[in-house]
Amino acid sequence: MKKYITYGLLILSTIIFYSCGTDLKEKGSPKYISEIKEWHSKRIENLKKENGWLNLVGLYWLKQGENKFGTDKANDIVFPEGKAPSFIGSLFLKDSIVTIKVNEGVEVKSNGESVNGLELKNDTQQGVTVLELGSLRWFIIKRGEKYGVRLRDLDSELLKTFQGVETYPINSDWKFEAKLETYNPPKRVEVPNVLDMVDTAIVTAALTFEKDGVVYKLDPLDEGKQYFIIFADETSGVETYGAGRFLSVDKADSTGKIYIDFNKTYNPPCAFTKYATCPLPPKQNHLKLKITAGEKAFHGGGH
Question: Where is the domain boundary, 127, 155, 183?
Answer without folding.
Answer: 155
